[in-house]
């Protein structure tokens, strides 16, 4: 009688071990099978927006923005001055048409802290 209980215990432990090892494989296979029936991908937007390059020399900032795309991009230069008493500046927004390049410039009284350009793409 004792050998039957032992054999049953070993078979039970072996079946639990096999089930524990097989479960991740089964889940992975089921996930791959269901992947083909997923919803279609969202459409990718057309490329748009000007590419801008900024440079800082002393207290002066210059940005050149070139728009190679068919939509118009409105760009604006933002300059943050390092000194607390030096006034930060936001340049006037400028429209960059298709195939055009614009020059934006600004300055601080002393050192420049940071510079960035914001974009707003407009449909034509």
TrEMBL record:
It comes from the Bacteria. Residues 32-41 have a biased composition (Low complexity). Residues 1-22 form the signal peptide. The keyword Signal applies. Residues 32-52 are annotated as: Disordered. Keywords: Signal. This is Secreted protein. It comes from Streptomyces atratus.
């Amino acid at each position: 009688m004792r050998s039957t209980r032992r054999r049953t215990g070993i078979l039970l432990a072996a079946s639990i071990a096999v089930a524990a090892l097989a479960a991740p494989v089964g889940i992975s296979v089921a996930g791959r099978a269901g992947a083909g029936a997923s919803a279609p991908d969202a459409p990718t937007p057309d490329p748009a927006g000007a590419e801008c390059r900024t440079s800082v020399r002393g207290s002066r900032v210059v940005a050149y923005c070139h728009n190679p795309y068919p939509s118009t991009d409105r760009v604006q230069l933002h300059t943050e001055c390092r000194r607390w008493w030096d006034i930060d500046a936001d340049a006037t927004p400028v429209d960059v048409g298709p195939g055009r390049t614009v020059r934006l410039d600004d300055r601080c009284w002393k050192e420049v802290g940071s510079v960035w350009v914001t974009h707003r793409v407009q449909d034509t």
